[in-house]
Amino acid sequence: MAETVLVTGGTGYVAGWCIVTLLERGYDVRTTVRSPAKGEAVREAVSTAVDPGERLTFAVADLMSDDGWADAVRGVDYVLHVASPLGDGDSSDPDALIRPAREGALRVLRAATTEGVQRVVMTSAANASSPASYAEEGVTDETLWTVDDPSLPAYRRSKTLAEKAAWDFMAAYDGPTQLTTVLPGGVFGPILSAANLGTVNIIARMVKGDMPGAPRIGLEVVDVRDLADLHVRAMTVPEAAGERFLGTGEFIWMRDIARVLKDGLGEAGGKISTRQLPDFLVRLASIRDKPLRAITMSLGRRNRHTTAKAQRVLGWTPRPAAETVLGCANSLLDRKVL
Predict the structure, then answer these.
(1) What percent of the chain has pLDDT over 70?
(2) Average pLDDT, whole number, for the chain?
(3) Structural domains in the chain (count)
(4) pLDDT at position 253 over 80
């Protein structure tokens, strides 16, 4: 009999690929949605990559409510807690992100430990394991924890505080359920649907010509398919219990991403600008452009994360950034998102 995995937030970009990967590897999957109507959209998206048949089912649950979580975890073997609110860079109300991220993680853990599932794999972020200043040189690993500060972007704070709350919960728990966390970088790659594009919007804006140039920002690009694979490895490898794993990829400047896309897309990349935007222009534009506000502190960032632990313990290797961003752009073109 196949084991069953609960994936939270089934409408999300990463969650969708986790569902696909699990189904491809023979697991039954249950995923949470905030309303029954959203289940059909998830099934349709997943069906573009794999036939879910009767092996994909749904549970209605929300990060901000206790309702539904006991039923969601009943009878499952593992939980991939991927769901988390996304921000737009506006830090006027950081609790709008922090509260659902932190309280949602605790709701999932309480339900999972009550049911006695084998392991919960929680999606955090590399930003929860970063130095205070992005401009610092060097390579850091999972032993570093981001020091929370109100000046940090709300999304970064939400991921850090949610992960800390999860580990604090498990420190006080005495039972069979294990916790592992995965800390991804900038997630790109093929899409399953045009909904909830998340970070993929960066590639879409570049290809559409909506970006007059590239800000001086470096991204640790990880392919969404590799990230899904990392979650499943973290779920099944015995040595992964109680560990954090960085899931970042190759460090690449946004200007180099633009060049890869322009060279690789041919005529479809004709609107892409490879101009380097001066930092002062980015800061000036961020006054009116909310999404830019969260990235201005990343200008010139050179600190990187190492995935040596994931490679050593889990046997995980991410694909090159160029392959990922080109695959992402071609997927957007194929699905006529652009």
Answers:
(1) 94
(2) 91
(3) 1
(4) yes
3-class DSSP string for the chain: CCCEEEECCCCCHHHHHHHHHHHHCCCEEEEEECCCHHHHHHHHHHCCCCCCCCCEEEEECCCCCCCCHHHHHCCCCEEEECCCCCCCCCCCCCHHHHHHHHHHHHHHHHHHHHHCCCEEEEECCHHHHCCCCCCCCCEECCCCCCCCCCCCCHHHHHHHHHHHHHHHHHHCCCCCCEEEEEEECEEECCCCCCCCCHHHHHHHHHHHCCCCCECCCEEEEEEHHHHHHHHHHHHHCHHHCCCEEEECCEEEEHHHHHHHHHHHHHHHHCCCCCCECCHHHHHHHCCCCHHHHCCHHHCCCCCEECCHHHHHHHCCCCCCHHHHHHHHHHHHHHCCCC
What's residue 194's pLDDT? 87
Say what the pLDDT of residue 291 is.
62
Specify the CATH number for the domain of residue 280: 3.40.50.720
Is 197 among the domain residues?
yes
Query: Residue 86 pLDDT > 70, yes or no?
Result: no
Q: Does 146 reside within a domain?
A: yes
Would you say residue 64 lies in a domain? yes
Q: What is the pLDDT of residues 104-117, one digit of tens each?
A: 999 999 999 999 99
159 is catalytic: yes
* Dihedral (CA of 207, 212, 213, 215) sign: negative
Which domain, by its residues, includes 197? 4-333
Catalytic, out of 159, 271, 290, 309: 159
| pTM for this prediction | 0.94
Is residue 338 in some structural domain? no
Nearest to 155 by CA among 122, 191, 125: 125
